[in-house]
Amino acid sequence: MKIVNDSFTIGSNSRNQMINITDNVQDSIRKSGISKGTVLIFCPHTTGAITINENADPDVVHDVLLTLSDLIPQDKRGYRHNEGNSDAHVKSSLVGCSETVIINNGKMLLGTWQGIYFCEFDGPRHRTANIQITGE
Questions:
Q1: Looking at residue 71, which CATH number applies to its domain?
Q2: Burial of residue 43, with CB atoms counted within 10 A of its CB: 0-12 exposed, 13-18 middle, 19 or more buried
Q3: How many structural domains is the chain composed of?
């Protein structure tokens, strides 16, 4: 069993954004030399998240962000956190900070339309995604 850790930086350019990082994760897998196992993608930020969703139609990303903004508005009355980003913390908690994907023959076993996204909820910022690849 081999374990390889990697990371990469992501730059966002708007407050709420979903950035496709599938190719970045696949590059980490390729560099690791692991052909069979799992990859864990982790977001170490409390106002960011990691998710898997459709990567073919950009309207899906638009719809996800629109729905999250409608459900969790930035200016909700009653927020107590004084940095003005309480909505970003709530969105991050709902979406989650990690995803795990199976690797076979050096490739992630994602569905035909699936991609891995870094979700920015308090941008623009420079962020980090941490990767741990386990296998043989």
A1: 2.60.120.460
A2: buried
A3: 1
Domain hosting 73: range is: 2-135
Q: Is 20 helix (H, G, I), strand (E, B) or coil?
A: strand
Separation CA 90–CA 134 (nearest Å): 30
Please say whether the beta carbons of 123 and 17 come within 8 A: yes
pLDDT tens-place string over residues 57-112: 999 999 999 999 999 999 878 899 989 999 999 999 999 999 999 999 999 999 99
Q: Are 22 and 115 in contact (CB under 8 A)?
A: yes
pTM: 0.96
